[in-house]
Write a structure and sequence with these properties.
Strand content of chain B: 5-15%
Low-confidence stretches of chain A: 1-5, 61-103
Number of strands of chain B: 6
CATH superfamily of the largest domain in chain B: MTH777-like
Largest sheet of chain B: 6 strands, parallel
Distance between the termini of chain B: 29 Å
Distance between the termini of chain A: 49 Å
Number of domains of chain B: 2
Low-confidence stretches of chain B: none
CATH class of the largest domain in chain B: Alpha Beta
Largest interface: A-B, 63 and 68 residues
Helix content of chain A: 55-70%
Oligomer: heterodimer
Strand order of the largest sheet of chain B: 3-2-1-4-5-6
Number of strands of chain A: 7
Number of helices of chain A: 14
Largest sheet of chain A: 5 strands, antiparallel
Order of helices and strands of chain A: HEHHEHEEHHEHHHHHEHEHH
Shape of chain B: elongated
Radius of gyration of chain A: 35 Å
Structural class of chain B: alpha/beta
Helix content of chain B: 40-55%
Chain lengths: 451, 302
C-alpha cells in the first residue's frame, strides 16, 4: 500500500510556513546586531573569604551568613578549601545551598563576601571566624538576565557610563589637590563600571534553542501528525512522569512517611531542617497505617491476592467522598442559595445631602448616608432571578416540557446557551493567550525580532 | 476509480460553500498571522479596569499595612502565559503596600512559578525585602485540598519546613501564624484543580470571616468560579484581560521606573488577543453563512 500523495494544499501550506520562517530568520540575522537565541548573564566579581560559624553551647550555630555563589576565577583556591567544607563542596557540585545544615561536631563553613558590612560585624562580634590558612578567593557571581531587552539596556548604560568616565576632567578652576582627588574618584568609578560585565550565557542560549525546537515540534502537529511531533510528545510525557515521581518522593514519602518512621536517619541524610517531633512514638505508630495501606495498594502488582488492593482504595474513596460532601454542601449549595436570595430592587449608598447633614448637626448626630436606585444592579438581580428559575425548570424532568413549563424551560435553554457562549469566549481567550506566550518566546527569545 | 467531483452551485453561493470546506490548516495559519503581526507591530490598547479587577485591588489595599498574606501558586508552565502577569502584579502590589508574603503551591511546578516571580519582581523591585522576615517560600505540598484542610487547622500540620529546608518554627515571619485564619488575605492564582475553588470550599467555608479570599484564574476555569464572586471571593482576575486591568491599577498607584515591562506583560498580550478574537468572530460568522449556503446540498445542513 503506497503512502498517500501530498495534496496541493499541503505543499502550499509547507511553502508558506517555510517562507514565513525564512523571513523571520532573515530579519533576525541581518537587521539585528545580536545573533539568534543568545541569552545573557551579568557577572560581578567578589573577593570571598572562608569563615566558620562559632557554635553555641547547645551545639547549634547562631550566624547564618549569605550563601556563596558559583566559584569561577580562583578555582584552585576554592578547590583547596572545598574538601574541608560540606557546604562549599555541595555548591561546587551544583547542589542547592542549605544554610540550616547543622553538624554539632563540625562547625559550618561558608564562603562569604569579604566586603559585606554584615559579615564584618559578625566577625567582630565573634559569631563568625576566618578559617586560617585558606587564601581569599575571587568569585564570579553570575546572575541570569531574563529579558534580553533589559540586558541590552544594561550594556548600553554601562558603555555610556564608561565613556563618560573615560573623558578627561577639565582642570579649570581646580587646585592640583582637588584635580588629583577628582581623577582618583573618576578612575575608581571607571574601574567599578568596567568590572560590571554582561556576557552571553552558552547554557541559557542552548536551552532556548532546545525549547524553541520542542515548541515547533508540538506546533507541527497542526500541519499533520509526524515523527518530530511524536518524539517531542514522548519527551514531554517522559519528563512529566519522572518529575511527578521525584516530587511524590520528596514531598510525600520523605516528610510524611520516612521522617516519621526514621527521623534521625532522614535528618542526617535527606532533610537537615526537619524539626524534632513532640511525640516520635505516636508519629511512628501512625505512620505504620499509611505504610500498610501503601503496601496493600501495591499488592495489585503481585500475581495473586489482587483483591487486597481494593481495601486501601476503599479508604481513599471513602475519605474523599466524606471530605468533599461537606465542603460542597457548604460552599456550593448553601452559600450559593444564600447568595441568590437578595432583593430584586438594588440601591447604592450615596453621601448624605446638605439638608441631612445640617439636620444631623443640629441634632448632634452624624448624618446617615442616603441611597439611590441602582438600575444596573436591579436589572442584574431580576435577570439572575429569571435565570435561576427558568434553568431549574429546564432541569426538572418530572413534568413534561409542554405549555407554560415548556416555554419557561425554553427561556432556561437560552440562559444556558448564553452561559456556554461566555465560557467558550473565555476558553478562546485562554487558548489564544497560551499561543501568544509561545509566539513571544519564539519571536522574542529565540528569533530576537520582538521585544 | 477517482471519486466524482462534487458539483457546487455557481457564483457567490458556491464560493461560500467552498469557504466552509476550507482546509483547517489555513485557519491555523490565519490565527498565527493574526497573533504574530500585532505582536511584531507592538499593538497596545488602553485598559479600563472593571469591577472584578477593582475589587481585587481594593482587597489588597484595604488590609492594614504589614499584614501577612498567603499567595498560593496553583499553576504550572502550561498556564504561565495567562497567570504569570497577574502573579507578578500581585506580588509587586503586596510588597509595595508593605505586606509580608507567604508563598506556597498546590501544584508541583507552582513552586518554580513562584520562584520566578520572586526573582523577577520581588527581588528586583524590592531588594530590601528579607527572606524569612518579609517573605517566605513554603514550596509545593502534595495532597490537593487535603493541604488546605491541614492549613485550616495548623500551618505546621501541612509544612514542617520551608522550601529551603528550614524548620517552620525558626522562621520569624511565621512566629505568630498558627493556621490559615491568621492571614489577613489569601490569594490563589489558579489554573484548575486544586486551586481557587478548593480554597473557597475548604478554607473560606471553614472560616468565612477570618480572611479575605481573592483569586486569579484562567479563562477556562473562570466560569466555575464566577458564582463565588463577590460573596465568597472578594476579588477575581479572569485570564489575561483581568491581569491587564489589574496591572493598570497597580502600576498607576505603585509605578516602577526600571524595566516596567515586567509589570506590563498582560497589557502587551491584549493587542494580539484583540486581533485574534476579531478573526475568530469573523470565522464564526463566515462559518454560519457558509452552513446556510450549503443547505440542501449533499453533505450540507438540512
Amino acid at each position: 500500500m503506497s503512502a498517500p500523495a501530498t495534496k496541493p494544499n499541503d505543499r502550499l501550506l509547507w511553502v508558506s510556513l517555510v517562507v514565513l520562517g525564512l523571513v523571520g530568520l532573515s530579519v533576525g540575522k541581518f537587521f539585528r546586531p545580536e545573533p539568534i537565541a543568545e541569552a545573557y548573564v551579568s557577572v560581578t566579581t567578589e573577593v570571598r573569604t572562608l569563615v566558620e560559624e562559632i557554635p553555641t553551647d547547645d551545639g547549634s550555630t547562631t550566624a547564618t551568613p549569605a550563601a556563596s555563589a558559583t566559584p569561577a576565577a580562583s578555582a584552585a583556591a576554592a578547590a583547596a578549601a572545598a574538601p574541608a567544607t560540606s557546604l562549599a563542596s555541595g555548591e561546587a557540585a551544583g547542589q542547592p545551598a542549605d544554610n540550616t545544615k547543622t553538624q554539632p561536631a563540625q562547625p559550618k563553613r561558608i564562603w562569604v563576601d569579604a566586603d559585606d558590612p554584615a559579615i564584618e560585624l559578625q566577625l567582630k562580634e565573634g559569631t563568625l571566624k576566618r578559617v586560617p590558612d585558606v587564601a581569599q578567593a575571587v568569585w564570579d557571581v553570575r546572575t541570569p538576565i531574563d529579558n534580553r531587552a533589559t540586558a541590552r539596556a544594561q550594556m548600553a548604560a554601562l558603555e555610556k557610563e564608561a565613556e563618560k568616565l573615560s573623558a578627561p576632567t577639565d582642570p579649570t578652576g581646580l587646585t592640583k589637590e582637588q584635580f588629583d582627588q577628582r581623577e582618583a574618584a573618576r578612575m575608581a568609578a571607571l574601574k567599578v563600571v568596567e568590572e560590571k560585565r554582561i556576557v552571553s550565557s552558552t547554557r541559557d542560549s542552548l536551552g532556548i534553542w532546545v525549547a524553541a525546537l520542542l515548541t515547533l515540534g508540538i506546533l507541527s502537529f497542526l500541519v499533520r501528525d509526524n515523527p518530530f511531533y511524536k518524539v517531542v510528545e514522548s519527551i514531554l510525557i517522559g519528563v512529566s512522569a519522572a518529575y511527578w515521581m521525584l516530587v511524590a518522593f520528596w514531598s510525600t514519602l520523605v516528610p510524611d512517611l520516612f521522617a516519621k518512621l526514621a527521623p534521625d536517619l532522614v535528618r542526617a541524610t535527606m532533610l537537615p531542617g526537619l524539626a524534632p517531633s513532640k511525640d516520635p512514638t505516636q508519629d511512628f505508630l501512625l505512620a505504620l497505617i499509611p505504610l500498610g495501606l501503601a503496601i496493600m495498594l501495591l499488592w495489585r502488582l503481585m500475581p495473586k491476592g489482587g483483591w487486597i488492593a481494593v481495601w486501601p482504595l476503599a479508604v481513599v474513596i471513602g475519605t474523599f467522598a466524606g471530605m468533599r460532601l461537606t465542603a460542597t454542601i457548604e460552599a456550593d449549595f448553601m452559600a450559593q442559595i444564600a447568595a441568590a436570595i437578595k432583593p430584586a430592587a438594588a440601591f447604592t449608598a450615596v453621601p448624605p445631602d446638605e439638608a441631612a447633614i445640617a439636620a444631623a448637626q443640629a441634632a448632634g448626630t452624624v448624618a446617615s448616608p442616603g441611597r439611590a436606585f441602582d438600575f444596573g444592579g436591579t436589572l442584574a438581580a431580576i435577570l439572575g432571578l429569571i435565570g435561576v428559575i427558568t434553568v431549574l425548570i429546564y432541569f426538572f424532568f418530572s413534568l413534561e416540557h409542554k405549555g407554560v413549563v415548556g416555554k419557561t424551560a425554553r427561556v432556561g435553554v437560552w440562559f444556558l446557551m448564553i452561559t456556554f457562549g461566555a465560557a467558550f469566549g473565555l476558553t478562546v481567550m485562554g487558548r489564544m493567550t497560551l499561543l501568544i506566550g509561545r509566539f513571544e518566546f519564539l519571536f522574542g527569545d529565540w528569533l530576537n525580532v520582538a521585544k | 476509480m477517482q471519486p466524482r467531483k462534487e458539483q457546487l452551485p455557481p457564483g457567490i453561493r458556491g464560493l461560500l460553500v467552498r469557504l466552509g470546506r476550507i482546509d483547517r490548516r489555513w485557519i491555523y495559519l490565519a490565527v498565527a498571522v493574526a497573533i504574530g503581526v500585532p505582536m511584531l507591530a507592538e499593538l497596545r490598547l488602553p485598559e479600563v479596569p472593571e469591577k472584578k479587577a477593582r475589587a481585587t485591588f481594593e482587597a489588597i489595599e484595604s488590609i492594614p499595612e504589614g499584614s501577612i498574606v498567603l499567595l498560593s501558586f496553583d499553576y504550572d508552565p502550561a498556564s504561565e502565559a495567562e497567570l504569570e502577569p497577574m502573579a507578578n502584579a500581585m506580588v509587586h502590589h503586596c510588597a509595595s503596600r508593605g505586606h509580608r508574603i507567604v508563598f506556597m503551591a498546590l501544584w508541583p511546578l507552582g513552586k518554580q512559578m513562584a520562584d520566578k516571580t520572586i526573582d523577577s519582581v520581588l527581588k528586583y523591585y524590592h531588594p530590601d525585602k528579607v527572606e524569612g522576615v518579609d517573605y517566605v517560600q513554603l514550596g509545593f505540598k502534595t495532597g490537593n485540598e487535603g493541604v488546605i484542610k491541614l492549613l485550616a487547622n495548623s500551618i505546621d500540620g501541612a509544612y514542617t519546613t520551608d522550601a529551603a529546608g528550614k524548620a517552620i518554627s525558626e522562621i520569624p515571619l511565621l512566629a505568630n501564624v498558627r493556621s490559615v485564619g491568621d492571614f489577613k488575605l489569601v490569594a490563589s492564582i489558579s489554573a484548575g484543580y486544586p486551586g481557587a475553588q478548593q480554597w473557597v470550599q475548604y478554607a473560606d467555608s471553614a472560616m468565612p470571616e477570618a480572611f479575605k479570599l481573592i483569586g486569579g484564574t484562567t479563562g477556562v476555569q473562570s466560569s466555575q468560579l464566577l458564582p463565588y464572586f463577590p460573596t465568597q471571593m472578594e476579588g477575581m482576575l479572569i485570564a489575561v484581560k483581568g491581569a491587564a486591568e489589574y496591572e493598570t491599577l497597580v502600576t498607576e498607584k505603585y509605578p516602577v521606573t526600571e524595566s516596567p515591562e515586567r509589570l506590563g506583560i498582560g497589557r502587551e498580550r491584549m493587542g494580539p488577543q484583540l486581533v485574534a478574537h476579531l478573526l475568530i468572530i469573523a470565522l464564526i460568522v463566515l462559518g454560519n453563512i457558509s452552513m446556510l449556503a450549503a443547505r440542501g446540498l449533499k453533505g450540507g445542513a438540512r
